[in-house]
Every structure is written in C-alpha cells, then in structure tokens.
Amino acid sequence: QLRDNLDGIFKSLRGQGKITDKHIADAMRDIRRSLLEADVNYTVAKDFIASIREKALGAQVIRSITPGQQIIKIIHEQMIELLGEGNAAIDFGGLPPVIIMVAGLQGSGKTTFVAKLAQYLKNQGKRPMMVAADIYRPAAIDQLIALGKQIALPVYSENSNNAVAICRNGLKSARESQANVLILDTAGRLHIDENMMNELKQIKSEIKPREILFVADGMTGQDAVNAAGAFENELQLTGIVLTKMDGDTRGGAALSIRAVTGKPIKFIGTGEKMSDLEPFFPDRFASRILG
Amino acid sequence: FGRESKVSDDFLDELEAFLFQSDLGTDSTDRLMEAIIAASRKKKIQNYEDVVKILNSELGKIFFKDELEIPIEKTSPFVIMVIGVNGAGKTTTIGKLAYRYRKEGKKVLIVAGDTYRAAAVEQLEKWAERAAVEIFKNAAAKNPSGLIFDGIQSGLAKKMDLIIVDTAGRLHNRTQLMDELTKIDRTIKKLIPDAPHEALLVLDGTVGQNGLVQAQEFQKAVPITGLVITKLDGTAKGGIVIAIKEKLNIPVKFIGLGEKIEDLKAFDPELYLRGMFA
Ligand SMILES: Nc1nc2c(ncn2[C@@H]2O[C@H](COP(=O)(O)OP(=O)(O)OP(=O)(O)O)[C@@H](O)[C@H]2O)c(=O)[nH]1
Ligand SMILES: Nc1nc2c(ncn2[C@@H]2O[C@H](COP(=O)(O)OP(=O)(O)OP(=O)(O)O)[C@@H](O)[C@H]2O)c(=O)[nH]1
Ligand SMILES: [Mg+2]
Ligand SMILES: [Mg+2]
How far apart are CA A225 and CA A240, in angstroms? Predict the structure, then answer.
C-alpha cells in the first residue's frame, strides 16, 4: 500500500526530471498517514518522519532511479534501528532464582504470558516457578494454577490479600525448592491508579526482580505511549512484551512503546497456546508496521 | 490542549492532534476537522466552548439517543450474546449487565459459554454470585454451541426474563473461531428464532484502528446490534467508536468505567465527548 503510494508519487519522474521538495513533502505526508493508520503514536510518527525526511534529503535520493523504493529502504532501516537495539534476551545474571516481574494494563495477556514464559524457559533447561500475585481479579489465581498444571510447572499461591507478602513467600518457596527462575504474575492495573502502581513499586523494592517486563496488547492505539511511559517512569522496566500479534493489527504500538520507554521488546505473543511465544525480530516487525 | 479564543492554525493543529490521539482515526478526524474549519470560516468559533458545541452537534448527527436502548421488555426471555477479542472485558461486562438488570427486577440467567480458557467459568461464577443471578455452566462441555443450547433451554424452562451468553475471546482473523460464532448464533435460533435479540461486541477502550476491523469482521459472523467499550476509566478515549458508527452504523450502548460491578454506564454521546475533553 505505502510502497504503491510512494511509487505513484515518484513515477512521473522515471529517470528524468529532478525530485522537488513537493515530491518529498507528498511522500512524507503519505508515510505519516500510513504510520498513523498503523497505530503509531501521533508524536512518535512526527519525530520518525522528521528523521526520515532528513535522511531522504541527505541520501541523494534525487540521484536514484527509483526514489520511491529508496525512501522505503530508508524507512525500513530507520524503523529496524528504532525497534531493534538493546538486549532482547532474558537477563539471567545475579544469584538464583532470577526474578522476573510481569506488569501491565487489564487484559493485556500477562497471566498467559507468565505461563508461556515458564514453558519457554523450561525448554531452555531452566527450573521456573510462577507466583500468583493477582489478588483482585475473580479466579485469577485459579487461572494461573490451571495453566501451571497444563505445563506441569509449579505455581506458588496463597489465600491472602497482600500481594507483596505473596511474592515474598513465593521467593522463599522458590529457594526451598531450588527453582532457578521466579516469574511474578501481577494484577492488571491502570497507570493512573496510584495505589495499584504503589503496590508494584513495593513488590519491586522488596523482591528486587532482575527483569520487569511490561506486557502490552499489540492492538493498542494512541494510548500506548501513556501507559508504557507511566510504567517506565514508575518502575524502570527492563523489557516489553507485545501480545495478540497473531491478530491482523499492524502493531504500530511497538514503535510507540519502544520510542517512549527506550526499552527492548523481548517477546511477542502469537496465540493462546502455551507454545505461542516468540522472541522479537525487529526486521520482521518493521515490515508488518509498514503494511 | 490550548483553550485560546481565536482560531489560529496552531489551535487547529492541536485540535487535530487531540482528535487523532483519541483514536478517531484519520477519516473521522478529517471529517470533524472539516466541520470545525467550516464553522471557523463563518466566524462561529469564538472560544473553546464553541468547539465543543460544534463537535457535539457533529456527534449528534452520528449517534442517536433512541437506538441506544436495549428493549429488554419486548420479549421473554430476551437474549444478549456477548462477543469480542481476547481480554476486551466480556466476562466482566456480563457481570455488570446481570447486576444492572437484576436490580431492575429482572430474572437473569448467565450462560458460561466460554468452554475454552483456563478458569473462565470460575471467573463468571464469581460474577454471578456478586450480581446475585443464576448461572448455567457445564465443566465437562467442550463444544460451546452444545452448552449454549442447553443454557438457553434451561433459561426457557425457568422462565427467565433475560439470558446473557458469555463466549470465549477470539481474534477475528481466525476463520475457525469466527465460524464457531456463526454456529452459536444458528444454535440459539433453533430455540428462539429472533435471538440473540442483542449481540454486543465488546471493545477494549485502548484499542487502535484494529477496533474498526474487529467490528467489520465480527459483523460478518454475527449481526452486531451494539458495542460496549470498556476501560474508559483509563487514559484512552476510545474514539474508534466514532469511526465504527460512521462507517458501519453500529451504536455504542454501554461504556465500562472500572472493575467493580456498578462500573457500567449507558452510552451518552454528550457525556462521552465531555469525558474526552476532560
Ligand atoms: N490470540 C491471542 N490471545 C492471547 C494472547 N495472549 C493472551 N491471550 C488471551 O488474552 C486473554 C487475556 O489474557 P490474560 O492472560 O488473562 O490477560 P491478563 O493481562 O492476565 O489479564 P488481567 O489479569 O485481567 O489484567 C485470554 O483470553 C488469553 O487467552 C496472544 O498472544 N494471542
Ligand atoms: N479498568 C477497567 N478494567 C476492566 C473493565 N472491564 C474489564 N476490565 C478488566 O479487564 C480484564 C479482562 O476482563 P475480562 O472480563 O476477563 O475480559 P474477557 O473479554 O472476558 O477476556 P477473555 O474471556 O479472556 O477473552 C479484567 O482484569 C477486568 O477486570 C473496565 O471497564 N475498566
Ligand atoms: Mg492476569
Ligand atoms: Mg471472558
């Protein structure tokens, strides 16, 4: 779609005639519209276009026989660069158990991801344990216990109304059972809910997780920057997970979240089965956003 | 958001950015901006309140008060089917709806039609308990159509006023799952030809342009009579419902404003707009 549009803008040139500012302006406008329709945040798209325009003007696009394709190449590279830096693997440094805290908005796919991650790490030879620290959602603990049974991995849970204590006791249980990875499932919450954000900060300060992963729904629209930005400010995330990418959303939220947090996207969820978890590949994803 | 009295280009740019960041999408944003620009040319915009007035009148052309009603009284049992993608808030919304109508004196039955996801039935059971309504479930059932058939039958036998059917979350690009939804719809019609009397598509308030695709695709599987947009107690504005109404003519019937049982409001376009600008 975008490729055709850009080819269309430049096809009147066909090897002769000079590329004008108008050509570039038209191209930028089309790119911007395409990014916005892909759910890239308005401000992130603006900054992204500015960097593209700069590169396009600097890159001798005017001399190219196929300026449209040249610009696409610049966009593609710039997007991969933006999406891709940083270590996308789980950090297993420090004394075991390595603690991974999972957080995010309601319904984004955290509980499912916790179980998928446990399965993934078990396949890598780790001994994971999960902690059911969502004390609010009806049957949240039942849900994680059921998933734990499906993948035959332990879930620590207790009948209490104190999420911090549950995590603390879960850590104790992990040490006693020699689990070497501990994954904390937390309740979905709004970034503007001060009490709930404080709960996460308390868990972080007491349990000291090695990884704090923000799980975001891949079809999130413009609000992605608000939630991700707030979670980053409050918790200093170590990574991002994008779920439900087996849908047909173009996933511009990935660019927005990456731009606003500066943190690496580590995994994407690609379905409801426990095996539907993939490490994140920036180049594949860039093609998807561009549509 | 600048609240200046003169309509400058800066003001228009800011307004456009604001509408766009509310997830209206490019087309609906363009259309509303045209109305604002036309009004400002006719000098009809002196201040910020005028902008809200224009947008209100535009929204008033898109949403109509009468189509927001759910005529529970018109038949018994009235059947509401609740559908949508994973995690949108279907099960929670059903708890809220059951509570609302039970408080109005209706005999409500919830049918636990999500036979797939871990602890889905337990979650809905908890909501039925909170709403003080009956629930039909079958832990052994694997086939949702079969279970929902039995549930509707039970609702008929018990002379329920209202039956609300929960379904498993599903992505609209999964053909098999969308076919399953069509099968559920046909199954319901075997018992009650006009049912479901209401098919509500639940959208996550944070959804972007994919929300429009969801509405398009779910509509093909089951005729949708209304939307519920959830999680508007967050910072998302849910503007995709404007695009959906303009393009598909599907009205919003309820908005979800939290995780408690009372956190459901009937959709009011004016209040919605005020909330957007809040
Ligand atoms: N198709 C698809 N569905 C997913 C994916 N990840 C999670 N889900 C589904 O999304 C829904 C919500 O998942 P949960 O794991 O309950 O989400 P959550 O973030 O724990 O929800 P809360 O605890 O209520 O905040 C469930 O129906 C999951 O099966 C994914 O990658 N693809
Ligand atoms: N803040 C807020 N959270 C909500 C609202 N509606 C639902 N939720 C939360 O969103 C999460 C998902 O809700 P569910 O009711 O399980 O969603 P679902 O569509 O049934 O999910 P699946 O059955 O897995 O597809 C839960 O944590 C709910 O408490 C709302 O209006 N506001
Ligand atoms: Mg959960
Ligand atoms: Mg549900």
Answer: 13
pLDDT confidence tier of residue B4, bands split at 50, 70 and 90: very low
Q: Are A102 and A128 in contact (CB under 8 A)?
A: no
* B274 or B239, greater pLDDT: B239
Q: Is B30 on the interface with A (CB under 8 A)?
A: no
d(CA A186, CA A111): 8
Residues paired with residue A103 on neighbouring β-strands, in sequence order: A214
* Phi, psi torsion values for A162, nearest 5 degrees: -130, 105
Q: Cα separation of A276 and A189, whole Å?
A: 24
Lowest-pLDDT range of A205-219, B37-51, B84-98, B264-278: B37-51
CB A214 within 8 A of CB A237: yes
Q: Which of A190, A222, A244 has its CB closest to that of B23?
A: A222
Q: Which residues of chain A have pLDDT under 50?
A: none
Residue of A nearest to B211 (CA): A219
Contacts of B89 in chain A (CB under 8 A): 106-107
Contacts of B86 in chain A (CB under 8 A): 107, 109, 244, 272
| Distance of alpha carbon A181 from alpha carbon A175, whole angstroms | 10
pLDDT digits (tens, 9 = 90+) for B9-36: 888 999 999 999 999 999 999 999 999 9
Closest CA to B93 of B275, B262, B268: B262
Rg of chain A over CA atoms, in angstroms?
A: 22
Q: What is the pLDDT of residues A29-78, one digit of tens each?
A: 988 999 999 999 999 999 999 999 888 877 666 566 677 778 888 888 99
Residue B5 confidence class, pLDDT cut points 50, 70, 90? very low
In this complex, do A42 and B259 lie within 8 Å of one another by their Cβ atoms? no
Consecutive H or E run containing B52: helix B48-62
pLDDT of residue B164 exceeding 80, the answer is yes
Cα B120 to ligand 4 centre (Å): 6
The whole-number pLDDT of residue A226 equals 97
CA separation for the pair B5, A12 (Å, rounded): 44
Of B49, B91, B26, B36, the residue nearest A221 (C-alpha): B26
In single-letter form, the type of residue at position B101 comes to Y
Q: How far is CA A167 from CA A157, A174, A238, in A?
A: 9, 10, 19
Q: Kindly report the backbone phi and psi dihedral angles of residue B165, in degrees, each rounded to the nearest multiple of 5, phi listed first.
A: -105, 120
Tokens 């196929």, residue? A66
Contact A116, A274 (CB under 8 A): yes
The answer, for B89 touching chain A at a CB cutoff of 8 Å, is yes
Beta bridge partners of A278: A268
